[in-house]
Amino acid sequence: MLSSEQKVAVISGDALGIGLACAKRFAKDNYRLLVIDRSEDLLAETCQEIRANKGSCLAYYGDIANELTSQLDCEKAISEWGRIDVLVGNAGVQIGGELLKSSEEDWDKILGVNLKGVAYSCKAVLSTMVEQERGSIVIISSINVLSGSAAMAIYDASKAAVLGLMNTNFHFPLTVTSLKQWKLIVDCKQVRRKVN
Rounded to two decimals, what is the model's pTM? Predict the structure, then answer.
């Protein structure tokens, strides 16, 4: 069992960009990490880098659009460390395109990860956090929800829906926050190993 100072964070979408930056920051603050992504190779690199800097990291390869993935990754964190203190719902996909040119497949893919994946992750950690009587959930949204873009119809709709989910506050005494990435530009290929 961990001491009260050793906290556990579960973070989705850790292979690149914002998720990688979150993982590195939490590791720097001595959190134990369970990181989730669909990119097995990049996820392994993330964990390897965190461990090389004396951090504690477990990788869970999977698609959070599948509810079982969220259940299993949280069970893995509980089994290993006995608690979950923070969830960062960061995983997301982006397909550009106007509404009239969108397909059902586009909607399913984007809503599957960007909305259902966040909801499944929250659902998976809530019972543990309620039992612990503490926990924080951070949901990554998008600045696009404030103005929208005709070229990003599905993505913008999915991120607005995530804000709606966050605003429910889950009716539990937990801290739930949404970050809208105010003018945050991340070139994931450039930033991969430069984030500190």
Answer: 0.84
pLDDT exceeds cutoff 50 at 182: no
> What does each C-alpha distance from 13 to 20, 93, 102, 124, 191 come to in angstroms?
8, 10, 24, 16, 15
**Residues annotated as part of the active site:** 155
3-class DSSP state for residue 138? strand
Indicate the residue type of 148. Answer: G
pLDDT recorded at residue 111: 95
Q: Is 195 exposed, middle or buried (0-12, 13-18, 19+ CB in 10 A)?
A: middle
Q: Which residues contact 108 (CB under 8 A, 6 or more apart)?
A: none
Rounded to whole angstroms, the Cα distance separating 91 from 74 reads 15
In sequence order, what are the beta bridge partners of 60?
36
With a cut of 70, say whether residue 77 has pLDDT above it. Answer: yes
Contact call for residues 136 and 143 (beta carbons, < 8 A)? no
Structural domains of the chain, ranges and CATH numbers in brackets: 8-184 (3.40.50.720)
Q: How many CB atoms lie within 10 A of CB 68?
A: 12
Give the range among 3-17, 30-44, 65-79, 154-168 with minimum mean pLDDT. Answer: 3-17
